[in-house]
Amino acid sequence: MLIKVVSLVAMAAMAGVLAMTVPTTFQLAKMDTGLSSSLHSTTQLVSIESSIIQKNKSLHSLIQTAHLMKAQLQVTDSVTAKLETNINTINHLNQQTLEINQSISKGANTSAQNLADIAASMSALYSATSSLSKTLQSLNGIVQGDTNNLSQMRDATAQMNSNVPGVLG
């Protein structure tokens, strides 16, 4: 019987221990659920932090790219400023060329008018010299006629003088 009493006491002790372990097990199960939830949240947080770190690394690369683009834009701006200066110089030279061409054109127009005036004068001179040539030819004919007449008059005078005594011929 002692064995029965010891076994009853042992059973009662076991039931007590079991009764005490049930709430503890229940609390441990709650803690396990909380820790699992916390582990899941921590895993998500680590994933987010990893993504942020990656993005921060990309941000550094983006900043370097932005600095490189800024430097390239400064070079582009400098080249564009030089192009603008060259274009302004070309525009200025084109304006000077236009003014020179306009001046030459005025001179050419004046020269063309002068040449037209000279051509008209030369044409008038040609007409006058042609008329003078015709007049001189006519005069030459008259002079030839006068020469013939004078020669005949001299011959006639010489003949008359030969007929008159005392006139030397």
- Overall shape: rod-shaped
Query: Into which percent range does the helicity of residues fall?
Result: over 70%
Sheet of most strands = none
SSE-based structural type: mainly alpha
Q: Mean pLDDT score, rounded?
A: 82
The overall strand count is 0
CA-CA gap between termini: 222 Å
Instruction: State the low-pLDDT regions, or none.
Output: none
Radius of gyration: 69 Å
**Proportion in β-strands:** under 5%
Number of helices: 1
- Helix and strand pattern: H
Structural account:
The structure is a single chain. The protein has 169 residues and is mainly alpha-helical. Helix content is 96%, strand content 0%. It has 1 helix and no strands. The longest helix has 162 residues, at 2-163. The model has no long low-confidence stretch (mean pLDDT 82).
Keywords, separated by commas or semicolons:
mainly alpha; signal
Give me a quick take on this structure:
The chain is mainly alpha-helical and 169 residues long.
Topology:
Layout: H1 2-163
